[in-house]
């Protein structure tokens, strides 16, 4: 199976890379396993220095890496370059804070447990496999790799097959900064080979960001071999607008939330749930702003919406929209693909969705927005919580009681008030229900791949 860069703007193959053989995969796992011993012997100060140097290298290459991202998966160039800088920021964040996040925690009064010394300590697990998606080909990897390596783990990367150049760029990034050979290795393999890597006794844990079926498969294999797993899967995030909120600001933010990354973000606002008292006002402004978006070549600075990353991804969008259309939904904007090359889909707004439409339950991974009318707060919560996903959510209100209600009652890993959902290295990130389990980022995310060891001394 060849692994290829297929430019979604043109549909043309830019590069074909041969996958690693079984022997090459075995060798790379061995390199990562050998690096664990050296990483355990290193200090936080050493790892911090290496991480900062790797961050400097990536920052110096930001323009070129941004262009590579856009060619491989199609996001507007400004967003691609911004993704690189976000990754650099995370690398420096963990270089600065890891020693504090993973510091020994002594019991204040060890005599209570009959000891002279009692404490807990975070220690690395070993080799961690990351199965990563194409939608943020640098950021998604770095937000795993930076905390994992700073904790003293080594990393293996099975990247999405349509971003092989990003995968190979990351293969030696950390060694360029000074990390021991093998601290991070890319595996150019297909999805069918992931289970074999997880089951390898040298691999201690696995993390996946991707689809629900992929998550189920990885979780099953990890469970079979009793290995730690963290899963960040899909989302169909609600964006709730209430009468006390700033409606015009909500509409403008809703557009950004929906079309960022060409609409291909797990935590993007996808279902826009609007109180009936302000529904018409919001819908009119939202549709107007969506209609003004510039769709085109993502390498051009004026482009706001580029192509969907894969042909299959666009086909999935077409099927979701056509299903809604056939079942009586109203297409307020878009609902079609433009003529010409590439995997473009026009910004689309759909309303009046019947309960049996697939869009009500399934994630639309592209520039397709669904509008829902809610009669009151309880109805808005019902609509928001009716899907099987629970990744993130947003609510627009300036009423303190409403805010408290929605923060408490929304079934999600995050609630953003009067803003759009964004991942920050300072805040935990992850979901509930079929959006996965475990957390990335912040302090808790770094500790996911550590052994919390209790130490007791008489």
Automatic annotation (TrEMBL):
Concerning InterPro entries, the annotation shows: Ald_DH/histidinol_DH, Ald_DH_C, Ald_DH_N, Aldehyde_DH_dom, ALDH_GabD1-like, GABD/Sad-like
Show the Gene3D superfamilies listed in the entry: Aldehyde Dehydrogenase, Chain A, domain 1, Aldehyde Dehydrogenase, Chain A, domain 2
One GO MF term: aldehyde dehydrogenase [NAD(P)+] activity
Name all Aldehyde dehydrogenase domain ranges.
Answer: 3-455
Q: Please tell me whether the keyword Magnesium is annotated for this protein.
A: no
Would I find Metal-binding among this entry's keywords? Answer: no
The protein's UniProt keywords, in alphabetical order, are: NADP, Oxidoreductase
What the record says about family reads: Belongs to the aldehyde dehydrogenase family.
What protein name does the entry list? Aldehyde dehydrogenase family protein
């Amino acid at each position: 199976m060849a692994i290829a860069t297929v430019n979604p703007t043109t549909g043309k193959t830019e590069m074909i890379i041969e996958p690693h053989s079984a022997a090459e995969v075995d060798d790379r796992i061995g390199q990562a396993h050998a690096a664990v011993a050296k990483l355990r012997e290193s200090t936080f100060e050493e790892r911090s220095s290496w991480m900062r140097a790797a961050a400097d290298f990536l920052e110096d290459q930001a323009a070129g890496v941004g262009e590579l991202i856009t060619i491989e998966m199609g996001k507007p160039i400004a967003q691609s370059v911004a993704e690189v800088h976000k990754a650099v920021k995370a690398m420096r964040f963990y270089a600065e804070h890891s020693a504090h996040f993973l510091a020994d925690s002594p019991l204040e009064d060890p005599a209570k447990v009959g000891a002279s010394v009692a404490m807990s300590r975070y220690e690395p697990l070993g080799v961690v496999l990351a199965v990563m998606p194409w939608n943020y080909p640098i950021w998604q990897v770095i937000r795993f790799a930076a905390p994992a390596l700073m904790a003293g783990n080594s990393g293996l990367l099975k990247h999405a097959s349509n971003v092989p150049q990003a995968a190979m760029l990351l293969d030696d990034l950390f060694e360029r900064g000074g990390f021991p050979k093998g601290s991070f290795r890319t595996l150019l393999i297909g999805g069918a080979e992931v289970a074999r890597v997880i089951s390898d006794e040298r691999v201690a844990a696995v993390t996946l960001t991707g689809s629900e079926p992929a998550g189920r498969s990885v979780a099953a294999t990890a469970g079979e071999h009793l290995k730690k797993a963290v899963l960040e899967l899909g989302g169909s995030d609600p964006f709730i607008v209430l009468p006390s909120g700033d409606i015009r600001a909500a509409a403008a933010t809703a557009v950004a939330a929906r079309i960022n990354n060409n609409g291909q973000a797990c935590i993007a606002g996808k279902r826009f749930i609007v109180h009936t008292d302000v529904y018409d006002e919001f819908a009119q402004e939202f549709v107007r702003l969506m209609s003004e978006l510039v769709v085109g070549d993502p390498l051009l600075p004026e482009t706001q919406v580029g192509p969907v990353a894969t042909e299959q991804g666009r086909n999935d969008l077409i099927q979701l929209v056509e299903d809604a259309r056939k079942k009586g939904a109203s297409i307020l904007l878009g609902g079609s693909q433009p003529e010409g090359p590439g995997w473009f889909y026009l910004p689309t707004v759909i309303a009046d969705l019947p309960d049996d439409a697939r869009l009500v339950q399934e994630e639309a991974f592209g520039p397709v927005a669904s509008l829902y009318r809610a009669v009151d707060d309880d109805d808005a919560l019902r609509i928001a919580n009716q899907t099987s996903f629970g990744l993130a959510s947003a609510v627009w209100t300036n009423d303190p009681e409403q805010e408290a209600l929605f923060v408490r009652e929304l079934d999600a890993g995050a609630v953003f008030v009067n803003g759009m959902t964004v991942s920050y290295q300072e805040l935990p990130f992850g979901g509930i229900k079929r959006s996965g389990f475990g957390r990335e980022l912040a302090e808790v995310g770094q500790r996911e791949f550590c052994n919390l060891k209790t130490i007791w001394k008489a």
